[in-house]
Structure formats: C-alpha cells, structure tokens
Amino acid sequence: MSDDLDLLLSQPLEEPVDAAFSARVLANIGGMRARDDRIEIAALVLASCLVLTLLSLTHAGQAAALSASQLAYSVPFALGISLLFLSRLLLDAIPE
Amino acid sequence: MSDSDRLAQNAAQGNVAAFAELVRLHQGKLRAFLRRMARGDAALADDLAQEAFLEAYRKIAQFRGEGSFASWLAQIGYSRYLMYARKHKLESLDDSIEQSHGTEAALHAKLDLEAALARIHTAKRAALTLCFAEGYSHEEAARIMNIPLGTLKSHVLRGREEVRTMLTAWKETP
Fold it and tell me: Mutate which of B7, B19, B41, B57 to test chain A, going by most A C-beta atoms within 10 A?
C-alpha cells in the first residue's frame, strides 16, 4: 500500500493550459505600473512645489528671484523654469 | 543558474519582458499547486495565482537566488493561500466534507487520492504535494512553507499516514 501510495502521490500535478491567464496577469501588471507612475509623478510635483516654496523663503531663493527680475523675467516665470528643471532632474534620478 | 533565475535577475533590473516570460513558464505549475491546495477550486486557485504573480513582480528585486525562482514563487503562492484560508476559515470545511466521504468510495484511485488530500490539514496537504508531486526536497519544501525542517518531515509522515488510512477504509467500504 505504501509503495502504491507513494507512486500515486508522486504523480506530477496536471498543469492547466494557459488560456490567456498569462495575458491577464501582464495586463494587470501594466495597470499596476501605470497607477504607480501616476502616483510617482504626483509625488514629484508636490515635492517640487514644496522645495520651491521653501526656497522662496530663503535668502538664496530671494536672490534668485531678484536676479530673475533684474534680467527682465518675472518671478513666476523663474519659478516655473526652476520647477520644470527640478522635475526633470528628479525624473532622471529614478531608475527605469 | 537556471534560465528562470537568469530571467528573474533581468526582471529585477526592470525588464518587464523577462518577467512576462517567467509568468508564461511558471503559471501552469503554480496554478496546479494552488488548485490542489484549494481542493480543486480552479477559479479560486487562478485568483490566488494572479495575486501571487503581482506580488512577485512587486518584490522581484528581493529575489536573491538563494533558492530557485519556482520555489520562491511557490512560497508567495502558498502564503497567499494561507491568508485566504484564514480569512475565510476554509479549514472548518473539513468537517462537512468528512461526513460525505462514504458516497465517494467507488471513485477511481486518483480521484480518491484527491478526495483524501482534500480532507487532511492544509499544511500536510502542502507538504505532501511539494515533496511528492512537485519533487522539492524537504529543505526546499520547509522554506516554501516557512516552517522548521522537523515540522515539515512530521507533516509528510502524518499526512501520508492519514491519506493511507482513508484510502484503505474507502477500499473496504462495500
């Protein structure tokens, strides 16, 4: 009985056919990645806004704003350019 | 290093195509294991397998290659099944199944085996499946189930004995 039982137990499990299972998993992974990307971008924008707000309260930030106005650019424009630059830097820093 | 382990390393570096290949290679084995764990409930097994693959994708960077990718995936799948079973109190089903076994006495030996395995405790069912049908060593099976080696061996011995007792009793039932 033991030998028969071991033989029975050792029979490989019958593997179900794929039947689009893999495709469904990969579609869910795609959705998960898209969601993660959106969260990442929102976090980056928030972080950038926070950094720029804090920067505008410092001497360096005010000096930068003054320089910008002296160069005939408005402060919002300078901050906007800085925001874009900072976002790009942060995006580049994130591994693929 | 196996092909799967190499693919897992590529996937850990962000290669989605490598992970897609891992899904195609391992879906059959994982789903079959979870079907045995879920007592033949194919829909539940596929849902759990899907969740296991998503978790594996999230954690792929944690795969260190200490065991095989297949055993790492089985570990995630088994843990998913345990969480589901605890949440839905699946083990309590054992009693109701036990009462109806006499009607199945004439089933084919393979079906009898599945019926007997469905009646034993989850850990024993997993231990027997991993060590016999899946061909894992005792050490690998213990790692997959996250239990000490001694406990795993005890599950194998006792589970096998319980299955043997059930099959013998059913054979003797007219």
Answer: B57
A64, B74, B109, B126 from B19: Cα distances, Å = 47, 16, 38, 26
Domain ranges across chain A: 41-96
ipTM of predicted assembly, 2 dp: 0.80
Provide the CB-side half-sphere exposure for B31 (13 A, CA): 21
Cα of A39 to nearest chain B Cα, Å: 15
Q: Tell me which residue in A11, A32, A96 faces B133 most closely, judged by beta carbons.
A: A11
Give how far A78 is from chain B: nearest CA, Å.
36
Q: Which residue ranges form the domains of chain B, and what is each CATH number?
A: 1-88 (1.10.1740.10), 93-174 (1.10.10.10)
Digits of tens for pLDDT over chain B (174 positions)?
Answer: 788 889 999 999 989 999 999 999 999 999 999 999 999 999 999 999 999 999 999 999 999 878 899 999 999 999 999 999 999 876 544 444 444 444 444 446 777 899 999 999 999 999 999 999 999 999 999 999 999 999 999 999 999 999 999 998 887 766
